[in-house]
Design brief:
heterodimer, A: mainly alpha, 0% strand, B: mainly alpha
């Protein structure tokens, strides 16, 4: 038990929190037909993360979150601007903006010297779930021991904080967001602050992307954002089951993917382990494929 | 002073840029930009699988062609998956693209972790396919890139009237007797070719920019298609040259990032020029 708590508890918790938060927000992307925004924001936060890291020297914390939020808002604004000014279709505008931001982030990583320290390209590409350890854990009692809990990795706290904030905001804005998803023009005409809601959603996305970034890397955040929500979209027409199901499915996929990647084979006596973030992403894709087949079978 | 190696890399990147610029012009106008993103990411598991097979049969691990063929197969599979998912009618193409690119990439990441655990350390260069490392380009790779550029230029020029009809008014073109499906398939084939060929140098994350940036810049500066087409190919080549030089001068800059930043600079300049 102690070994599980020390090695696997923190990454498992991080994966579940990331999966639930991203799965919840992903429904808005899918319902509003803005899945590409998820792709864009998860890539575009990189320069913000690098600059925040440069200032504080830590991968988690408020400056990193602020930097990422700023980068995400800038990217979203740039996409809107390009679509209007350069008359580019959404896909091309997104492609230009996120690759530009991501490339700038890679170069900043080198220029600021962050690369050599603690934040390297591998962390960006694959996540660093394996580095989330909880060495102070000693048996089940640690779960109820405040001082031991306080020594959990910072990333877990950041994910928990962001997850709670996102869940609370979505709960508070439940009905306005529902209207925004189904009929933005009507929402505007009855006086809802559509633009503010838009910005709020983008900020939540950025926060989720940064918090999950450390666990699964910046590309696989896209899988957690879009795949659970797309799977739910394939099998349900109800807003409530879409949102709650997306969050639940995200958490489930993350937990199962993490278990399949290492702990489960190890428990069965195999020495083979694969990248946990990758396993989660593959599982997420398979879930969408299964949902597509299930949806077709149900309608047939 | 430019060394022989740098020259090889610069010429190779220039050829890739020309190919991507020529094809990207039509990819942009036909609204296929992000399918290229999906194909690039989807290629990773194919590249890794080819490396695993290569290790099995003890072939030269540095030979690019088998890896690229694996990547092309996986990229085409990814394209099929996107189309199958959008055909359900319940999730749109953008969501399908996001799901496919992320889960195929994830499969590649799983494969990479398997490869890295294997004793033969010959696969060390595989992760370069993600961000690109043009510095490893050899003379024969540069020649291959040159051939690719010639092929892409020749086919886009040969198909020019059809591609133009397809991009501007597909329905009218169909009425005039153009085979839309076949022309679209030819365009997708060219896009796939450029994406896969660009992987070793530019990397799968940024390869889409190679197609989109020169084309978007050229579109800002031109009102007519022939001008846009030539400007796009030229700008692609120029971004390749300058990006390769930049990355050769800064060891820590991935080539893909340098090429994209140069391309972005051109694009921003064209925006400002138009405004002025």
């Amino acid at each position: 038990m102690t070994a599980f708590l020390q090695l696997d508890f923190a990454p498992l918790l991080a994966a579940i929190l990331a999966g639930a938060t991203c799965g919840l927000l992903g429904s808005f992307l899918v319902l509003r037909r803005e899945s590409l925004l998820g792709d864009a924001i998860t890539h575009a936060v990189l320069p913000g993360i690098v600059l925040g890291f440069f200032v504080t020297g830590a991968r988690s914390g408020l400056p990193v979150l602020l930097g990422a939020a700023l980068a995400a808002l800038l990217a979203a604004a740039a996409i809107t601007h390009l679509r209007r000014v350069a008359r580019l279709e959404g896909g091309a505008a997104t492609g230009i903006v996120f690759t530009g931001f991501f490339a700038a982030g890679l170069v900043l990583l080198d220029v600021t010297g962050a690369r050599s320290v603690d934040l390297d390209v591998d962390c960006v590409l694959f996540g660093q779930m394996e580095t989330l350890l909880w060495p102070q854990a000693e048996g089940l009692a640690s779960l109820f021991d405040a001082t031991a809990l306080a020594s959990l990795p910072r990333a877990v706290f950041m994910l928990a904080g962001v997850g709670l904030a996102v869940a609370a905001s979505v709960a508070a804005l439940w009905r306005p967001l529902k209207l925004l998803c189904f009929d933005a023009a009507y929402a505007q005409s009855i006086g809802l602050p559509v633009r503010l809601l838009d910005i709020a959603l983008n900020l939540m996305l950025a926060a989720a992307a940064v918090a999950a970034f450390e666990a699964v890397g910046s590309i696989l955040v896209v899988a957690l954002l879009v795949a659970p929500a797309a799977a739910m979209r394939l099998i349900t027409n109800r807003y409530n089951s879409q949102l709650l199901g997306g969050a639940g499915l995200g958490a489930g996929v993350a937990a199962l993917g993490y278990a399949l990647a290492g702990p489960l084979p190890a428990a069965l006596g195999s020495a083979h382990a694969v990248n946990a973030a990758g396993a989660i992403g593959v599982l997420a894709g398979l879930v969408v494929g299964a949902a597509a087949l299930a949806g077709r079978w149900r309608r047939a | 002073m430019i060394t022989h190696n740098t020259l090889v890399v610069v010429l190779g990147c220039a050829a890739l840029g020309v190919a991507a610029g020529a094809v990207g012009c039509f990819a942009l106008l036909r609204g296929r930009a992000l399918l290229a993103d999906a194909m690039g990411h989807a290629a990773l598991p194919g590249v890794v699988a080819a490396a695993l097979l290569g290790a099995w049969w003890d072939t030269d691990p540095r030979a690019l062609p088998p890896l690229l063929i694996g990547g092309a197969v996986a990229g085409a599979l990814g394209l099929w998956a996107v189309q199958a998912l959008s055909a359900t009618g319940r999730i749109r193409q953008d969501a399908a693209i996001a799901v496919v690119l992320a889960s195929f990439y994830a499969l590649g990441v799983v494969g990479l972790s398997v490869v890295q655990a294997m004793p033969a350390g010959a696969q060390a260069g595989l992760s370069h396919f993600i961000l690109g490392q043009a510095a490893t380009m050899r003379a024969e790779d540069a020649w291959a890139a040159g051939l690719l550029a010639a092929f892409c230029l020749a086919s886009t020029v040969a198909l020019f009237p059809r591609l133009r009809a397809l991009c501007f008014d597909a329905e009218f073109a169909a009425l005039q007797g153009l085979n839309i499906r076949r022309t679209d398939a030819a365009l997708m084939g060219l896009i796939l070719l450029v994406c896969i060929a660009g992987l070793p140098a530019v990397g799968l994350v940024l390869v889409v920019a190679l197609l989109v940036l020169p084309a978007a810049t050229a579109r800002m500066l031109n009102q007519r298609l022939p001008g846009m087409f030539m400007a796009s190919a030229a700008l692609g080549g120029l971004s390749g040259v300058l990006g390769a030089l930049l990355s050769a001068g800064h060891a820590g800059w991935p080539t893909g990032a340098a090429v994209v930043l140069v391309g972005t600079a051109f694009f921003v300049a064209s925006l400002l020029l138009r405004r002025a």
